[in-house]
């Protein structure tokens, strides 16, 4: 019984000790466009929401064009500290949005959102 208690205790200590590391990264919780979603153009609003504050001056949004080229998007002034946004004009086609978010503590998170424009 004592071994079981020690094992459970060590497991809980490990879990709580690791949780600050997990919370250090900005995780994407919502996006417009949505992953594999379809939006109507030509004016497309890009809005990414994270679980923590992100540094809008050091974060990046890169649009992958249908022809494979890349376009760095200009970020709008942050309306909320956990949000990144841009406005773009797009023709119909298949695109992908690559994001790199820098959390307030400096940790970097990356991801990609494929989407279509009609």
UniProtKB/TrEMBL annotation:
<keyword id="KW-0186">Copper</keyword>
<dbReference type="GO" id="GO:0042597">
    <property type="term" value="C:periplasmic space"/>
</dbReference>
<dbReference type="InterPro" id="IPR014756">
    <property type="entry name" value="Ig_E-set"/>
</dbReference>
<dbReference type="InterPro" id="IPR032694">
    <property type="entry name" value="CopC/D"/>
</dbReference>
<dbReference type="GO" id="GO:0005886">
    <property type="term" value="C:plasma membrane"/>
</dbReference>
<dbReference type="InterPro" id="IPR014755">
    <property type="entry name" value="Cu-Rt/internalin_Ig-like"/>
</dbReference>
<dbReference type="Pfam" id="PF04234">
    <property type="entry name" value="CopC"/>
</dbReference>
<dbReference type="GO" id="GO:0006825">
    <property type="term" value="P:copper ion transport"/>
</dbReference>
<dbReference type="GO" id="GO:0005507">
    <property type="term" value="F:copper ion binding"/>
</dbReference>
<protein>
    <recommendedName>
        <fullName>CopC domain-containing protein</fullName>
    </recommendedName>
</protein>
<dbReference type="GO" id="GO:0030313">
    <property type="term" value="C:cell envelope"/>
</dbReference>
<keyword id="KW-0479">Metal-binding</keyword>
<feature type="signal peptide">
    <location>
        <begin position="1"/>
        <end position="24"/>
    </location>
</feature>
<dbReference type="InterPro" id="IPR007348">
    <property type="entry name" value="CopC_dom"/>
</dbReference>
<feature type="domain" description="CopC">
    <location>
        <begin position="25"/>
        <end position="117"/>
    </location>
</feature>
<dbReference type="GO" id="GO:0046688">
    <property type="term" value="P:response to copper ion"/>
</dbReference>
<keyword id="KW-0732">Signal</keyword>
């Amino acid at each position: 019984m004592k071994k079981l208690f020690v094992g459970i205790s060590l497991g809980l200590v490990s879990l709580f000790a690791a949780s600050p590391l997990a919370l250090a990264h900005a995780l994407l919780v919502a996006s417009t466009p949505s992953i594999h979603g379809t939006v109507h153009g030509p004016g497309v609003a890009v809005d990414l929401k994270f679980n923590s504050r992100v540094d809008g001056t050091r974060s990046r949004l890169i649009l992958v064009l249908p022809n494979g080229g890349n376009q760095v998007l200009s970020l709008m002034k942050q309306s909320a500290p956990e949000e990144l946004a841009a406005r773009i004009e797009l023709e119909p086609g298949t695109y992908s949005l690559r994001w790199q978010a820098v959390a307030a503590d400096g940790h970097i998170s990356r991801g990609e959102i494929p989407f279509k424009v009609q």
